[in-house]
Write a structure and sequence with these properties.
heterodimer; A: mainly beta; B: mainly beta; Immunoglobulin-like; four-stranded antiparallel β-sheet
Chain lengths: 113, 112
């Protein structure tokens, strides 16, 4: 099966600019997650979707981060405006149903200068 | 909120040495437990999982983990490591609200 697709792989922006990441989960996976992984740390959940509804966004900095999954398939994560501390790898993961293992994409490495 | 602690930040072993990586979590309810591995230059992938039943679970590549409910622990073990096991290992805990949290990770370096 095709894996979780993410783009772009790398992005370099200046602080206060905006950026968007795209994720296409494995076909049929209803649950989609966005994680932020700062260098030296474990992945931190930003937002979780079940189909096109938000299950958990308690750790999403909503003043600057937004995410959507309009048709219950692919998803976009946006940061506007970016800060230096947003430099991280943004991981998308999907699972077939709740309580099943996650399948991760390769991530987008964001550098904010 | 639940949290996941991995005791070792970086572990260095010689080939054929035994491995044990610690993982403790704080959550009082029913949990599902996972170990994920990230090989250099690759994406995170599942190593093994525990949902219920036998607390000793076996995963890929000779890894196993033991769930000790009374200690809120899910330690990863391998009797004899290989150079190809060099990677970063993440413990993850999923609570019954489907909230998956990861530990900070343990970097394993195996010297040939």
């Amino acid at each position: 099966e095709a894996g979780v697709a993410q783009s772009p792989r790398y992005k370099i922006i200046e602080k206060r600019q905006s950026v968007a990441f795209w994720c296409n989960p494995i076909s049929g996976h209803a649950t989609l997650y966005w994680y932020q992984q700062i260098l030296g740390q474990g992945p931190k959940l930003l937002i979780q979707f079940q189909n096109n509804g938000v299950v958990d966004d308690s750790q999403l900095p909503k003043d600057r981060f937004s995410a959507e999954r309009l048709k219950g398939v692919d998803s976009t994560l946006k940061i506007q405006p970016a800060k230096l501390e947003d430099s991280a790898v943004y991981l998308c993961a999907s699972s077939f149903f709740p309580f099943s293992p996650l399948h991760f994409g390769n991530g987008t490495r964001l550098t904010v200068t | 909120a639940q949290s996941v602690s991995q005791h070792n930040h970086h572990v260095i072993l010689s080939e054929a040495a035994s491995l044990e990586l610690g993982c403790n979590y704080s959550y009082g309810g029913t949990v599902n437990l996972f170990w994920y591995v990230q090989y250099p230059g690759q994406h995170l992938q599942l190593l093994l999982k525990y949902f219920s039943g036998d607390p000793l679970v076996k995963g890929i590549k000779g890894f196993e983990a033991e769930f000790i409910k009374s200690k809120f622990s899910f330690n990863l073990r391998k009797p004899s490591v290989q150079w190809s096991d060099t990677a970063e290992y993440f413990c993850a805990v999923e609570s019954n609200n489907n909230d998956m949290r990861f530990g900070a990770g343990t970097r394993l370096t195996v010297k040939p």
